[in-house]
Structure formats: C-alpha cells, structure tokens
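Query protein
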Amino acid sequence: MLRRSFLTAVAFLLALAAPGLSQTRPSQTRPFTDAAGRTVEVPAAPQRVLAAGPPASVLLYALAPEKMVGWVREPSAVEKEYLAAPYRDLPTYGRLTGRGNTANIEMVLGMQPDLILDVGSVDETYASLADRVQAQTGIPYVLVDGSFARTPETLREVGALLGVPDAAEALAAFAEAAIARLEARVAAIPLDQRPRVYYGRGPDGLETGLAGSINMEVLDAVGATNVAAAAGWGGLANVSVEQVLAWDPDVILTQNPDFHAGIAGAPVWGDVAAVREGRVYRVPALPFGWFDTPPGINRIIGVDWLANVLYPEASDDDLRERTRAFYQLFYHVELTDAQLDTLLADAAP
C-alpha cells in the first residue's frame, strides 16, 4: 500500500514538475550495471545525487559531500558537531527504501537529483522498487552491494560512478588496512576464547539482528558468535528477556544510551553473565553508529573498537589516533581531544 501510494504521488508530481526537471538533466550518459544486474543509463558526470537510504547517505557524504542534495534523516545537534559545515545543514527529505519509508515525494522531486543511489542489501524487492521509481520519475536509480566485506570495492565502485576516483581510493585503502588488521588479530585468537555476544537495540535492548542480518556483519567479522542466531535467519527482530537469559551471552553491546545506563540496575537482566560480570558496552555512535545505524561504511572504524573491547589482551594502542584519522578522511572533520574522549568513553563497562 505504501509503495502504491508512493508511485501514484510520484506520477502526479512528475507530471507537474517535468518541464523544470528536464532542464536539469545531464545530456551525456553512460551505462552502469548495478549489483542487481540492472543496466542503468547514468549521468557521465552526476552533480546532484539523492541517497535512497541511510547507508547510501553516509557513503555519499564520505565520498562526495558536494554532490549531496540533502540528508535522509536530519542529523541531531550533537551529531552535527561531528559533521563538516556546510553539509551538516543540508535539507532533509526522508528515505525511499528500507524500514519506515518516510520520504516526502514532493520534496524529493523538488530537489531535482540526476541520480538516486541505494547501498546495502540487494534482492528482488529492492530491485523492483528501483525499477518502479526509475520508471515513474525518469531518474536513474542504482543499487550497490553494501556488505561489510566488500567495503573497499564498494568505495571504488561508487567513487568511479560519482567521478571521484582519487577520493575513493584513499578511503578504500584505509578500509583495506582496517580489514587486514582485523583479520590478523582475529586469526590469533583461539576459537574457544572468542565470546558469545548479544547486541541490544532500542531503549529496552530487545531488538536484535538474527543470523544473516546485515546489522550483525561486524560481529561476524571480529570472530564473535551472535547468540541471537539461535532464533533463526533474517533481519532485525524483537526478542524477550527470557530468550536472552537462555542464551546467556558473555558480552552485551548496545548503541542505545538508555539501555546501557539502565541494564546494570534492572533485576530482570541480573542473571545474564554479561551483566553479572560487568561486560556491557556502549558502542560509539556519533555522527553514525560504529556497529550499525546504519550498516554502512561507518562500521570500518567500529571493528577496531570492537576488537579492542572483545579481546582486551590484544588491544590496539593506536585506536585513538586511528579514530582521528578516520574522521578526518571519511567525515571531513578534525576531532578535538574532547570529542575523542566522548567517542571512546564507553570502551569499558
């Protein structure tokens, strides 16, 4: 129903706006084969790019912020402190894809993008939506595989698409080094010393990712076991405290400050080993989550942090400076010492 309403609105608004939109379309195009196998005629030199969802928004900001037409979600005041001016104050238009479609279609069309970019999971549902939106609007819409292991390739692919290959290469090299460093650290940890982890989302910590969820990819990357995989295969799901008690994880992770602050004093969580033994950690989340929210290239710095938390005996003394370098390269900001302190404050329970 939401998609039908969306497409009807697009068709109506396009009919009203078509003359103005046609004047802004690039005259030169080239074919681009996306992750769904769709061949799309894209601008040879795109100038106004609309991100369809949060992972694409982060990627676009990192690679070519000057090409952004706006944000999928307006950054909060504290998040803006970790984003570069003037991009942090770009308009907000909502999301076209993923959970909770919120896009204001009139605003999206009014921004006159010459390309729509979606990054993340790729399947028939996303491909169908891309085809429909493209057919109704005439705006090329491409899908890019955003899986964590492909991060360097994703950066190079989108960098070439956007016409910023040099910027993309610098970011891809950083990502390759992070992944190689992580793989070497994890390989040195015996299997019986790798922890069982529960990742709690939301203020009550009872939303999590199942086996195969893109939101849990970094947990797999650091060699830990996702206890919620026992609940089956899928994406995000709600679970009960009783299920978490039965799984009895060694470590609990969360990005939610309310859940992190309240879990130690909540009797219902007291029998969980991670709570009883003080192994509950809040993942940094400014301006984007280091674990997920969104599950995008922002996770590259998160794996360094997570490896330090899960394997303290092999901790990395360079995390602070590596964080500074990541924010300069990916987020275009110079972190102050106070900002670094804020980001890394909860690296211990």
In short: The first strand starts at residue 29 and ends at 33.
